[in-house]
Amino acid sequence: MTPSSPRPATLVISRVMRPGREGDYDGWAAGVIGSACSQPGFQAALRLDQAGGMHHLLVQFAGRIALDNWTGQGGQADRQRAADDFSTGRQQVVEGAASHVVLPSEAAARKWKTALVTWAGVVPTLLLVSGVVGWLLPDAPRPVQQILSSVLLTGALTWVILPRVRRWSRFWMLRDSRGRLRTES
């Protein structure tokens, strides 16, 4: 790259899916990439999919002017609004061959939201497990019932309950007050 040539410009689009709408992202992302590929200055697109409905799409152009020309088109703005029907998102633009981007993640969720979601998964599971253990082993000493309940509770929460509760609540947990994805905790 010569000193007078433009620096590459990359649009980083991060989206977290609404529960049950994970499949809508594939067609949407293909449309974004197809639109970008047809524009002057397009260089590359990279799709990064995380487990649990978090997706990142990087679209790179030869320079900021080419990127701005593409994003300024009505079709691209319509695509972003369409994505808001099935997800919430955040867009960041970085320039240069070496760039730094902070991506949204579950670690960025507000602690009170994380605590509320965890509590919503724990309470019914705790009541069910302790009730079943107490019914099956009514004559067992209380510490034995509690130890068995805690083992069953921990297993159920780790492998069954919390992964589902977090998947269903991720869309809400990661939104900021303006409806965008959070990138900081």
UniProtKB/TrEMBL annotation:
It comes from the Bacteria. Keywords: Membrane, Transmembrane, Transmembrane helix. The chain crosses the membrane at residues 116-137, 143-162. The keyword Transmembrane helix applies. The keyword Membrane applies. This is Antibiotic biosynthesis monooxygenase. It comes from Sphingomonas abaci. The lineage of its organism: Bacteria, Pseudomonadati, Pseudomonadota, Alphaproteobacteria, Sphingomonadales.
